[in-house]
């Protein structure tokens, strides 16, 4: 039997035995709860060591903080898995997967997932990628029309309910609903807002907490998130890591809503000349053409691409390299945001939201967009789904605010909307931003 499989079985049996023993009368005499807590802690430590990963970045012997990579070429190599520190040339797929899985182990702990970002199993990696590709291909032209219609209806109905609306929860809610409809077909209008808001809010909270202290969050403790997820997807297998719906929701929703929010604000507040392109896209959102072939569709896609450039959803991508022969370990981070704002690559105005740069973009410019990864690890959504989904969501929001005299109150971040200055890109930015209906409309 393979050593990895044998070790896994032993650890599972150990965990089961600990639980059983904790319920025995003998264990109760020595303090069952304390014993179980301590024993399970050391079981997790053994699992971490066995997997050669750790929830704590200080396990790295080479460097306890990441080496930041800002060179575009080196970042592309790193994202595609072609960067190595073993001296053995371009690494194989197993080494590539392991380097990516190690820094993402916290996501396995916090969300109970096992997907292409967290696994070092080549067979499962290819199977998961195939599943995603099949799901994307299954979205027909008719389905895109339905998604656009529902996004428009959701945005309009939510803004009609009151005279003001927090911007971040609004964008999160609409993005999550349409993501669920795309990957887990169910009419999003019938989904209860409280469950949508709970899932969206808990994903954001757990994500941030797990970054600060990976060991502080455990999937089995996420009762609030699991219960809300079960309401949205009744047949969800939340305790089966490879079947957990968050395998899809995290990369599809979590990376999307922040790009949608910033693209929406840029086009609505600072670049109104691009609004017409989104209006046309909303009327004809189907994918009968290749992404961006129609004139106005192309303009909408240019704006979305520019949002992915200026505001990459993942600002830094981490890799943990390990050389079994020397036990040397290196932690590196590709600074995608810096690469996307380099004047050397993007011209004299890299900090300006300028969709026009994509109108006559040469192939090298497109290849420099790293928001969807690179090489062997290029996200399947880059082929069109990612741009089209973002464009439809931005179009729905623009349509909703266009139906009434709404204004944007950015709260303490008001000065950040100055012309030529990028919007804040932090995950917790604009939490005070509000959409406010003008007083004239409320009378």
TrEMBL record:
Residue stretches spanning the membrane: none
- InterPro entries named in the record: Cyt_P450_sf (IPR036396)
Gene Ontology MF annotations? heme binding; iron ion binding; monooxygenase activity; oxidoreductase activity, acting on paired donors, with incorporation or reduction of molecular oxygen
Gene3D superfamilies given in the database record: Cytochrome P450
**In its UniProt entry, what is this protein called?**
Cytochrome P450
């Amino acid at each position: 039997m393979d050593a990895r499989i044998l070790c896994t079985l032993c650890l599972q049996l150990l965990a089961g035995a600990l639980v059983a023993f904790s319920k025995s009368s003998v264990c109760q005499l020595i303090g069952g709860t304390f014993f179980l807590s301590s024993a399970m802690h050391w079981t997790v430590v053994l699992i971490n060591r066995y997997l050669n990963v750790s929830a704590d970045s200080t396990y790295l012997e080479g460097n306890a903080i990441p080496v930041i990579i800002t060179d575009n070429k080196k970042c592309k190599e790193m994202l595609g898995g072609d960067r190595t520190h073993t001296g053995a040339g371009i690494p194989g797929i197993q080494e590539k997967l392991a380097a990516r899985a190690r820094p993402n182990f916290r996501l396995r702990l916090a969300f109970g997932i096992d997907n292409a970002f967290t696994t070092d199993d080549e067979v499962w990696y290819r199977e998961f990628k195939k599943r995603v590709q099949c799901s994307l291909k299954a979205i027909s032209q008719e389905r895109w029309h339905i998604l656009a219609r529902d996004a428009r209806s959701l945005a309009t109905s939510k803004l009609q309910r009151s005279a003001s609306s927090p911007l971040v929860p609004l964008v999160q809610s609409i993005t999550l609903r349409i993501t669920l409809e795309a990957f887990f077909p169910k009419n999003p209008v019938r989904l209860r807002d409280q469950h949508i808001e709970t899932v969206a809010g808990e994903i954001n909270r757990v994500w941030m907490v797990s970054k600060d202290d990976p060991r502080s969050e455990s999937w089995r403790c996420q009762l609030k998130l699991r219960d809300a997820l079960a309401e949205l997807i009744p047949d969800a297998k939340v305790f089966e890591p490879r079947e957990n719906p968050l395998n899809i929701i995290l990369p599809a929703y979590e990376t999307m809503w922040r790009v949608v929010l910033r693209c929406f604000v840029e086009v609505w507040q600072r670049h109104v000349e691009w609004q017409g392109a989104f209006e046309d896209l909303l009327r004809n959102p189907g994918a009968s053409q290749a992404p961006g072939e129609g004139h106005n569709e192309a303009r909408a896609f240019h704006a979305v691409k520019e949002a992915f450039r200026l505001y990459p959803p993942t600002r830094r991508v981490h890799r943990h390299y390990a050389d079994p022969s020397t036990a040397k370990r290196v932690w590196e981070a590709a600074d995608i945001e810096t690469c996307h704002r380099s004047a050397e690559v993007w011209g004299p105005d890299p900090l300006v939201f300028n969709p026009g740069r994509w109108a006559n973009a040469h192939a090298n410019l497109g290849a420099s967009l790293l928001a969807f990864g690179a090489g062997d690890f290029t996200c399947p959504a880059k082929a069109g789904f990612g741009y089209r989904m973002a464009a439809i969501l931005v179009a729905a929001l623009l349509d909703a605010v266009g139906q009434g005299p709404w204004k944007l109150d950015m709260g303490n971040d008001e000065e950040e909307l100055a012309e030529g200055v990028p919007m804040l890109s932090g995950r917790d930015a604009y939490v005070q931003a509000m959409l406010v209906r003008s007083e004239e409309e409320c009378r």
